[in-house]
Amino acid sequence: MIKCTNEADVVEAVRGAREPFEIVGAGTKRGFGRVPRGATLDLAGLSGIVSYEPDEMILTVRPGTKVPEIEAVLAEKNQCLGFDPPDWGPLFGAPANQGTIGGAIAANVAGSAAIRYGRARDHLLGFRAVNGLGEAYKGGGKVVKNVTGFDLSKLMCGSFGTLGPLTELTLRVFPEAPLSAVLAVTEVTAEAGLALLRRVRSSPLEATGLAYMPGEAVAIIRIDGAREPLAEKLVMLRDLLSGHEAYEVGGGDALFRELGGGAPFVDTALDVWRIAVPRAKAVELANEIAASLWYMDRAGGMIWAGTKDIDLHEPAAKHGGHAILLRARDGTRARIAPFAPEPPSRAALTRAVKAAFDPHCLFNPGRMWDGV
Predict the structure, then answer these.
(1) Contact 235, 241 (CB under 8 A)
(2) 39-42 and 2-3: which strand pairing?
(3) pLDDT tens-digit map of 296-341
(4) 169-192 as b/e, with b when 16 or more CB fall inside 10 Å?
(5) Of all residues in the chain, what percent are helix, strand and coil, respectively (each to 5)?
(6) Above 60 in pLDDT, residue 17?
(7) From CA 372, how far away is CA 346, in angstroms rounded?
(8) What is the pLDDT of residues 117-164, one digit of tens each?
């Protein structure tokens, strides 16, 4: 294991590499993707906030900084990470509240609030990283509108470290809502519940949570705002839900955090899938896969499904979506590809990008696809 505490350590490690690296922060997502291999390049020591400009809503931070630490600093200024990074640690048997911001960006994770604010890739303004030749470089910048060419920041999000270790991140942050309210509509079928959620999503209410739980036959809606605007939003929301009984529930923020973190699957032995799908096809796909445990987030745009040794890539693609095997036993991970196979043209582009950033294939080789 090579432990790094600054960018110079990372540069030195890469230049002296004799074998591939598994890039690790807190290690809470090591069970996500193909089984890692290689020496461990530990970036947990690259932690701490570099700069924070609350008036500009810009935060620069090192990748090993734990997400709860960042959220606590932002909360002091009534701000937050808009993409609402969920805690997937318990899903993989790791302790809660240990995930790092570098891991969240590398996996492009986002919680229920992504329905309004977007995913991690929509919030990374710039970064510093080290390429496969041991050269430190930067991409993007420290302002919201900084891209005039190829947007490297979006390329790094969701690359699972295969393009190189990040050493610094600059993120856009958002004002934290003063209040939130959560309404539950009970005794609704999946078809009716998703129709309601899509109606709310298309309204001006700017909901930050739209979930459906089939076990309870309940649709759950979260809206935010200051006291008076929120009261007005609630009146509008009840009008949209006319004809259905809706009641306000407490602890809604915690509920959406649990859904975003896959909490219903933590104490199960099920394989866990996340499926991004066109909302109009969500119910049809859910019925087809017949998962033993499932729920929908983002008004049906994201399905969480628990199965046993079933490949969901083909059904997801048939309905215009794509599936990711988030958690599975090592045997299943070896047999079923975590990420959907790429068509030849895209696979060639993926390999070309990998070669440009990591010509010696040092970084997380094979974590996403074989040979990448």
Answers:
(1) no
(2) parallel
(3) 999 999 999 999 999 999 999 999 999 999 999 888 988 999 999 9
(4) bbbbbbebbeebbbbbbeebebeb
(5) 30, 25, 45
(6) yes
(7) 12
(8) 999 999 999 999 999 999 999 998 776 554 555 689 999 999 999 999
Sort strands 293-297 and 218-225 into parallel, antiparallel or unpaired.
unpaired
Dihedrals phi, psi of 10, to nearest 5 degrees:
-65, -45
Residue 232: CB atoms within 10 A of its CB come to 12
Query: pLDDT confidence of 371, banded at 50, 70, 90?
Result: confident
Residue 238 to residue 205: CA distance in whole angstroms: 11
Strand positions, DSSP E, 132-178: 136-140, 166-172, 174-175
Among residues of the chain, what percentage have pLDDT more than 90? 91
At residue 258, what is the residue type?
A: E
- Residue with token string 């509008």: 236
Structure tokens at 313: 């890539």
What one-character DSSP code corresponds to residue 125?
E
The count of C-alpha atoms lying within 13 angstroms of the C-alpha of 131, restricted to the half-sphere facing its C-beta, is 14
Rounded Cα distance, 43 and 4, in Å: 5
Q: Which letter does DSSP use for residue 25 in this model?
A: S
Tokens standing for residue 127: 């970064």
- Residue 107: pLDDT band (50, 70, 90) is very high
CA 185, distance to chain mean position in Å, is 27
